[in-house]
RasGEF domain protein
Amino acid sequence: MKHNHYKFIQLLTRKEEFSDKDTQMYYQRVSGYADNLDRLSRILLGQISGFDVFSNKRSVQTKLASTSNQLAYRIWSDVLEAPNLQAAAKIYCFWVDVAIQAGKNKNLDVESNIYNALTNIKVDRIFGADKDGYQLLPHRIQQTMRQFAQRYDPNGNYATLRNLLNKSSDYFSPFFLLAKDIEHIQDLSTSHERQVLNALEHYQNQSASLIAERGPYTADDGFRWLGIAEDNKKLSYFGQLSRNLKPMKHKAEYTAVSMPESIHYKPTSDCNNDLLFRDESLSSDQVQRSRSYAIDLYC
């Protein structure tokens, strides 16, 4: 799975123009990543009990953080190990699209984890709004990141985010918000504490129903895909990578990278659509052999 992921990233960064078929295939992969991460976060929440919240708070918070940490390492590795800034920008855009699809799936945990990873200093020093790399991002990606910034604004104890969750029971809460609320639970003497446990139970019931519909899947499946080499988890490693990224051209010539336009339908999980993109430099036999490297988290 990890080898397939690397092949996918290589194909993405080499693509200069996107046909209608390319765009459809691209969003099938975006949807696959978002669905895979959606399942993983919901399964992990189902492993936490109300008893754990009181008896082993630290363990609960560690478990809630496990997915976000692994996903952050995956995103940092993808973006910061790119050969140049233009390639890194394409990968950055891809992960923003996965976050958008996660939001359409009503999973704000996955959406917020991706947003937090992309706004971490290691990536933000390259693609922050006041940085040169920001010019490489298409307008729709810039606009989406501004919208995410408003949604995950910490002011008022994440008032904007909490208002959104209160308006609709369909949304799946970010784990960081649950971990924050669990930190202050002592007993069930206040309405707020009872509300936190009720919310936890609601998200678990919601998850169990969706998981039952989608079929077998384990947390190990997700972590195997997200996992990267232990040595690469050192923050100094990612920090050095972010300082080494250079553009292909002089910064005065920066133009936004080419990416598929957004589409307004949920792609189908058709595992027969082999390769994400066709590499025109390959012969038909080479293309056929390359099909085994196509990333498809549905299969």
Observations:
- The CA atoms of residues 50 and 197 lie 7 Å apart.
- Confidence is low (pLDDT under 50) at residues 269-299.
- The two ends are 11 Å apart (CA to CA).
